[in-house]
Amino acid sequence: MIKLQNIIHKGLSISKTICEEHESTIFLGSWILFAILLLASWYIHPLFSLCSFVPYLVNLFRKKQPIIYYLRLYVLNITWNLTVTYWLCLIRPSKGIGTILINSFLFLMPVFLWQGLNKYCKLKYGKPAALLILWILFEYGHHIWDFSWTWLTIGNVFGQSPQWVSWYSYFGVLGGSTWILCCNYLVYLVSQKAVSQTGKVVLITTILLPLLFSIVIVKVKIRQPDLGQKNILLIGTAEKGEGNFSDIRRMKMIDTILTKRTGKNADIAILPESILFENVWLNRFPESEVFRQFKSSIKTWRADHIIVGAVLNVSDTKGQHEEERMGIKRRYNQYNAALKIDNSDIIRIKLKKVFVPVEEYIPPYLSFLNFDSFGFSKELNNSDIFEANHQRYFIGICYEAVNSIFLASRLNKNVNAMVLLSSEAFFGSMEVGRKQYMNICRLRCVENNLSLLKSSNNGIVFSADHLGNIVNEKRVYGNYLMETTTILRRPSVYHLLVPYIFPLLLFALSCVIGSNIYLQKQIKGPMHKSEI
User: Fold this and answer.
1) By the 8 A CB rule, do 123 and 512 touch?
2) Cα 221–Cα 226–Cα 229 angle in degrees, nearest 5
3) Which of 13, 206, 236, 364 is 20 to 30 A removed from 426 (C-alpha atoms)?
4) Does residue 22 carry a pLDDT above 70?
5) Rounded to an integer, what is the distance from CA 323 to the centroid of its chain?
């Protein structure tokens, strides 16, 4: 009897070991495949993304001890973050690694919530739908909070080929995330042999229908009448914010390029983000030499309006910063701003509202933390739209263009084109980061049916049409002038739908939970009657 018990015990031990080795093999294989498919999605063709998350789902739907389960998902999240934004670690190793580790943990939040729903709401029906809704809610939340890092929004993968997702003009990048995850789930079911022939037809339809819809939308949009075109000057520089030249000397160096141009008169000349940083005070700037230089440049550049990026200081008794002038200390706030200068005496100002987390902005409730940051302030009531020659332009500043929800929510029906002031010195020698940034910006064109005009410091100067196609592009390594034209249009309906995204997602989630409660009651009812 004792020998039999020993044999059984050894047999169970061997079986457990084999199972654990089998599980480890499955995880290792799915991990490698996940990395390969992510690389293919972001660096070869975005259509690979329609199956790239299948290895992730294999691990997500496997029952395992909680610690091992979440640890494996965390490893996959790190792989995902590293594959796409590895360049962060090469630019600034400590901050880059910290960003990837924190963001990978945040990516576990939808799974935490989903498992909580399964446990406490006892979901039996629509579990995948609940997970999908929670994931899109997470991506939406990642767009609107103070530590917004929307680079890895799943739908952004199509930035390199925006023609495949022209329907973003209705559903936006979150609609793209939804489509990609649905396709991946259906492919996962096929790989698990959990669907019939009908299920395979549904998969093919889910993949092909949006692609065909995109083709139709492109053909329709090409034939739509436009509102005319404008001549634009895009100016590129290769200066850092704290370079060796003063603001006035830098402007005079740029002036030598623009005064030599022989093209048509321009409506707007657009300079990069934060190109002015030297004591630009709100109350003193109109009296400065730099301002006088710009006023004269309107004639010599033959441009009706100049839009320039500046680090703007505004006096505030409760400000974050302090200066001492003639023995008197005073506090002030610092804003990342865009200034519009023309022949009038009025300077229009747009203030940046979406910042690179920690690097540029620390929320007031975390001001006690001693982070190394630019310490910019935020003013949400400030307008993002400039008017020039009776046309309206949405003005974005660098990182704002990465945020689909912000940009669309700040548009209105009268905007005719988008302008982006950027500084890409942050990327250092990482050209892949600059390229990803440009591609993500192109999706804003598709979503809003508007052309985009982008100036840059130490980056890519480009113009793109309303379909996200590049019209002109130049990687700049010094002072550079691009003369281009932009076609004016009306924005798409996407900006009208954005306010309803959050309530619709909450409604969909409540429907999943409510239907589970109802169906479970319906099942229990007949059982109780039969018992009676």
Assistant:
1) yes
2) 130
3) 364
4) no
5) 35
